Amino acid sequence: MKRSIFKICVVALGLVTLESCADLDLPSDGRLALNDLFSTYPRTKGYYEICKSYIPQVGFMYQGSRTPLASFSDEAHDASDGVSGDVNDWYNNRASSTTNPVDGVYGWNHYFQGIRKCNTFLSSINDPKIATAQIKEVEKNGWIGEVLVLRAYFYLQLVKRYGGVPLITSPYEVNHDFSKDKRASIEECIDFILADCDAALAIPETSDANIGFRWNINDSDRGSVTRAFAYAVKSQAALYAASPLFASPGSKYTWEKATEITKEALDQCLAHGFELFDIAPSADIAQNSYAYYFINRSDPSRAIDKETIFESTAARTNVWKWAGTPFIAGVEKAGSGPSQELVDAYGMQATGEMPITGYSDAQHLQPIINPASGYDAMNPYVGRDPRFYASIYYNNSPRSLSTGNVDKSLIPLTFRSTVNNITSSVSNGETSLTTTGSDPWIFTSVLGKTIPSGEKRLITFEYKSNKTITNAQFFYCVAGGPAGGVSSPENIRIEGSTEWKRFEFDLSDAISRFGFGVNNNGGQPPANHFLRFDAGGDPGYDITIRNFQIETFNNPPAPIPVETFVGGNARISSDLTETRYTRTGYYLRKFNNYKSSVTVDQDGLMKIFRLGELYLNFAEAAYNAVGADVRVPSKVSGGQTMSAREAVNAIRNRADMPALPTGLSKAEFEKRYRNERQVELAFEEHRFFDVRRWKILMDTDKFVTGMRITKNGNNYTYERFKLQDRGTNVDKYLWQPLSLSEATKMEAFTGTNWQNPGW
After folding, report:
1. What digits encode the pLDDT tens for the residues 26-43?
2. Calpha distance 394→343 (Å, rounded)
3. All domains of the chain in start order, with CATH
4. What secondary structure does DSSP assign to 257-280, as a single string?
5. How far is CA 468 from the centre of its chain?
6. For each successive 10 residues of the chain (759 residues), what is the average pLDDT?
7. What angle do CA 88, 757, 691 make, to 5 degrees?
8. Which of 172, 213, 595, 649 keeps 20 to 30 A from 345, CA to CA?
């Protein structure tokens, strides 16, 4: 392993704060730099934060950060297939130990650098000769717990990609003897991962809500590793360890052992308040709770989102831009187009049955239709699993969910100097507000014209806020106010956001019920009235606002449909120079908020761990160990007795899909389970690894198919077609290659070939 992987991050610090870091070699004994790093609270905390910085920003991280991992699996085919780069190399079987398209920014080097940082922290924090900073014991132990879990997580990512890897528990000294290094077995690696998580979980919980290794954190602690994160690592590690690719004869990681570990992880999370997200949105926000979940940013305090265990902290998916429909301003490419194989996996809502059970030909052009499902090949997108509509733009699907998209009146407003317990400043059209006391409010300029009647009237603006405002309010006030006027309902919520986010509040109901102005029931706010904005009820809110305005809409037309048919506004194209059009006949919708635009990106962030995965992990282990219908007892206080089928049905119930029946054979249940996992976790970086650990890569990833649709008057003709053979489904692709330089160096050091088979 090359020495550059194990260089320590020596941090240049001012007297109190962390300023920068660079990878540099330690002095000969390593002590001087470490004494500096761990001599003060800010520097010690800064190094702990560096360890956390190696958690990946999961999302569109390939092809120059413009496509997801799904494009390299049977989930999708990227429209950049004709452009030089990662996608083109993968689809033309040009991966090698010198150029690995799916290594991306998060590969061997990245995770071993993170492990090096974790080892340095763990070996130094309790060494009295190095760690001289005065730190509360409970806070220090909390950091230790988090870093132990981080190290386990980094090792899990390596094992998923490369198999057995070297197990390193201490920082490498500059005189380290590399000839003694070896690749540990997969079982040894899983042992190590679980031991780190268990050591962290053995750290006692604290009653302090702000420090320690905790179950519950505050929204301001976004990015912190929790006890739920540790259990999620254990769940995934145990599942992988028992899977066909990872399992070895005589291994302790049987399906029974995996059932025990995954059940405990699920039960612990359920006992500590985690729940599947099931909040139903209004029809103009998202299609269903599943869609709503993936466009929302999580709140780490779990006040609303009780499902997310850990979410990418910064990288929004940018679906609207990098996998967007071509008739939307700002879209640069069609990107990762869902495959027909993925579309076929979505069941029928009325019957709960799979519409397509397989293919009668090797090209996947002749689907085997399940007659009991209710599927109509001439209306293939009718009556499908609600997750289909949340995840995929198909022919004639509505691009927008808005019921008001005709601009009849736009009234821009600015803020005046009349305030109460609030300070304001204006720069480049942006108004920064800070609340300084109770009941903070600020007035706008006068409306300038009467707000006309209309089907929909919105207060809208773009904003950033240091925290969520749960009790905002708006008042229309008469000229010469502030007396008079009518208020909006109380407790309007404005989500905290460090990025520009669009806010909308519909006034239509309040206007129709009360009117605005003094004794003016049913009337419209006249031109000389103005608006008062109450920014919560307390001091300490910092909110920056731009483009504050009132929008009214009337007689909305039907939303513009996504026309993927030949010649449509989002037409399918086989021209490799046209990267803005889908290759498969579909566009990605999951994570995409239709309101996203060039100025405000409201697309979701990918989840790294969520409760839905833990249900599925347990279900897979349990049906392999004891069968689909045998209920596994809980060893956790407050836990549930549950069968594999019941775990899958919990997922299906959230999606409003019928339950799987009892009495399925193991083979039947396995097919339904794998289908469920494919649908529920689509585009979340699971399928790429699942088909490998199940050792079905040869069957799934040779190529994908699409749907070419031709419009004839009001009728459509549907034709399945096959895209190019990729050649990336042979056995050597079960594992990723070590870089040639790394493998060559370690063979020279150890006399052993470290390279994975076939590379």
Report:
1. 344 444 478 888 999 999
2. 9
3. 407-553 (2.60.120.430)
4. HHHHHHHHHHHHHHHTT-----PP
5. 21
6. 36 31 38 79 95 94 92 98 95 95 91 96 94 94 98 98 96 81 96 98 89 94 96 98 96 98 98 96 93 95 96 91 94 97 98 98 98 97 98 96 66 88 93 93 85 74 91 75 53 84 78 50 67 88 93 73 97 95 98 91 95 98 98 91 98 98 97 98 98 98 98 96 97 96 92 95
7. 60
8. 595
CA 536 to chain centre: 30
CB 632 within 8 A of CB 335: no
Cis amide linkage into residue 482, ω under 30° from 0: yes
> What pLDDT score was predicted for residue 207?
79
pLDDT digits (tens, 9 = 90+) for 71-106: 999 999 999 999 999 999 999 999 999 999 998 889
For residue 637, the model assigns a pLDDT of 87
Q: Which of 149, 300, 137 is closest to 211 using CA atoms?
A: 137
Least Cα distance to 318 among 600, 739, 644, 708 occurs for: 600
Instruction: Please spell the DSSP secondary structure of 29-86, one letter per residue.
Output: TSHHHHHHHTSSHHHHHHHHHHHHTTS---SS-BTTTTB-GGGGTTTEEETTTTSTTH
How far apart (Å, rounded) are the C-alpha atoms in residues 89 and 93? 6
* Residues in Cβ contact with 570 at an 8 Å cutoff, skipping those fewer than 6 apart: 325, 326, 327, 393, 562, 563, 564, 581, 582, 587
The torsion angles phi and psi of 616, rounded to 5 degrees, stand at: -70, -40
As a whole number of angstroms, the distance between CA 298 and CA 318 comes to 17
Is the pTM higher than 0.90? The answer reads no
